[in-house]
Amino acid sequence: MNYEPIIGLEVHVELQTKSKMFCGCLNEPFGSDPNSLTCPTCLGLPGALPVPNREAIKSCLMIGLALGCGVNSRSYFERKNYFYPDLPKGYQISQYQKPFCFGGLIIISDRPIRINRVHLEEDTGKLTHFGRGEAGYSLVNFNRSGVPLVEIVTEPDFNSVENVVEYLQELQRIIRYLGISGADMEKGSMRLEPTVNLRITEAGEIFYTPLAEIKNINSFRFVRKALEYEISRQFKEFTVTRIEKGAGNKITVGFNESQGETYRQREKEEANDYRYFPEPDVPPFDLSAAWLEEIKNNLPELPKGKRERLVKQYGISVYQAGVLGELLERASYFEDLVKAGFTGVRAANLLINHPEILGRNPEAVFREFKKKAEETISDEATLQGIVDEVLAENSGTANQWQQGKKEVLGFLIGQAMKKTQGKSDPRRLAALFEKNLLKP
Ligand code: ZN
Ligand code: MN
User: Fold this and answer.
1) How far is the CA of 259 from the centre of ligand 2 (A)?
2) What are phi and psi of 13, to 5 degrees?
3) Neighbours of ion ligand 2 (CB under 5 A)
4) How far is the CA of 26 from the centre of ligand 1 (A)?
5) How far is CA 347 from CA 44, 52, 121, 336, 352, in A?
6) From ligand 2's centre to the CA of 9, what distance in Å?
7) CA nearest 34: which of 140, 147, 138, 131?
8) Tens-digit pLDDT profile for residues 241-256
């Protein structure tokens, strides 16, 4: 019996717009006083009317276009009805039949991952639970209620946990490059729900285990742990129960961080249970081709394109381009260093080995580097003289090296550096010492 996981992902990203999705309240849910950023609309009071946020729609389209999606020329919001204490209206304004974007594709480690849809909705309030049982109570903070939220849904195209993590990292980079969200999992501005089951092969027959959707994941580490746990749980369960995927047996599981285990929450609702219907208070959108064209043309360079360009333009390695491209500001600073006079390879090495220089004036860094290079003793005969001197003064240490205590080399180099007041290249010295010490 062997098995392969089948994983699909729903990722929610909170947008960094100035105001909320359907009202003028400030969009600053993190760190503000509880319930200080609310109004009748985001509190769901009767009669309040939603007014959609143009910037949020633009950001949603940017994500969709960056992921190679098509855009529905006509789309609209719908009400997704369900009850939850942090959802005062009793429904969430979301998209169902006509999301803004659909049908994209992203390649992760040579594996095509299809994007089913990218849609826009509003976030709920946030509940905080205190105590347990009779004495327990919960407080609700509506500052997050109505914050614009983009949902990115993939097809179940992942077949490993590694794949999933890579996708999430790339997605996070794309969103940060677009400058529309910090996509910070710890702060809750990027949240994900993987759905997983297994394809089990036994004596030429194939079985699929019931789907499980995992909630409450807020770090890359937990994604990995939750998925690994759930995969092995499903396999063990199948060997005992032999229950296969079927209508209505999808479950929702939570992830308990301290125990590293998933636990069953409820049977999953079907889309029908939400009774979606078009939001009557927000008319449909007919997006103009000109606006879409403008958004498309103004998309910034994306992580993959940047990595490829850095390799091609500066002759650095794929690995180096990966490290530099991880953060937009790091990649930009790298290019500033090259503009200041460094070669590509030199700038890449310098920045990767000394990440703390980021932010320093690149010209000043280059001047300093040049000065040091000029001062460095490069004359072979001079260096040889210094090495001879050090070896003569430290013959005991030299003997130790010859007897196999290789770590004393550092001490010898240190002595030579001292003699040159630091104006020599330790790597050249090391090579020279070794050459001399190996002499019979
Ligand atoms: Zn409001
Ligand atoms: Mn959603």
Assistant:
1) 27
2) -125, 125
3) 151
4) 8
5) 54, 46, 43, 9, 8
6) 12
7) 140
8) 999 999 888 899 988 8
